[in-house]
Amino acid sequence: MDNAKINEETSGLPADVFNIPEMTVMKGDTVVIHFYNVEPDADGRHSFTMPEGPYTTTVALEGGQNQTITFTANQTGIFTYICTFHTLSMKGQLVVALPTHDEFRAQQRQ
Ligand SMILES: [Cu+2]
């Protein structure tokens, strides 16, 4: 549902940031992250890394590559994601919230 694109060409953001620094999903959601490394050179590496918790993962890409990361958000909480190559500037948070009653009912109907 969310793009964790790094797109310094069009976003106007300084280099080496996630252009989505916070993602909020509901418990039970299937989370699909389209991770693009838009660096022009292959050696401009970035990763999408969740270093701990139930969604621990790391995907490292060279410039120009992209990869889709999919998981089920079955535990609530706030989980940090980083780029292991730029730990100071590339950080974000995944918020997994409890659905409201109406959202829960909508989920059950899917
Ligand atoms: Cu990076």
Question: Helix amount, in percent?
Answer: 10-25%
SS-based class: mainly beta
> How many helix segments?
2
Alpha-carbon distance between the two ends: 16 Å
What summary fits the major beta sheet?
3 strands, mixed
Q: Which percent range describes the beta-strand content?
A: 35-45%
CATH structural architecture: Sandwich
CATH class: Mainly Beta
Task: Give the rounded overall mean pLDDT.
Answer: 88
The CATH superfamily name is Cupredoxins -  blue copper proteins
**Strands of the biggest beta sheet: in what spatial order?**
1-3-6
**Total beta strands:** 8
How many distinct domains?
1
CATH topology: Immunoglobulin-like
Coarse morphology: elongated
Small-molecule binders: copper (II) ion
Along the chain, the helix and strand elements come as: EHEEEEEEEH
Low-confidence stretches: none
Radius of gyration: 15 Å
Structure explained in plain terms:
The protein is mainly beta and 110 residues long. It has one domain (2-9, 17-109): Sandwich (Immunoglobulin-like), CATH 2.60.40.420. The chain has two helices and eight strands; from the N terminus they run βαβββββββα. The strands form three sheets. It has a three-stranded mixed sheet with strand order 1-3-6, with no helix packed on it. A three-stranded mixed sheet has the order 2-8-7, with no helix packed on it. The protein has a two-stranded antiparallel ribbon with strand order 4-5. A hairpin with a 6-residue loop joins strand 4 and strand 5. The longest helix has 9 residues, at 101-109. The two termini are 16 Å apart. The structure holds copper (II) ion. Copper (II) ion (CU) is lined by residues 16, 46, 83, 85-86, 90.
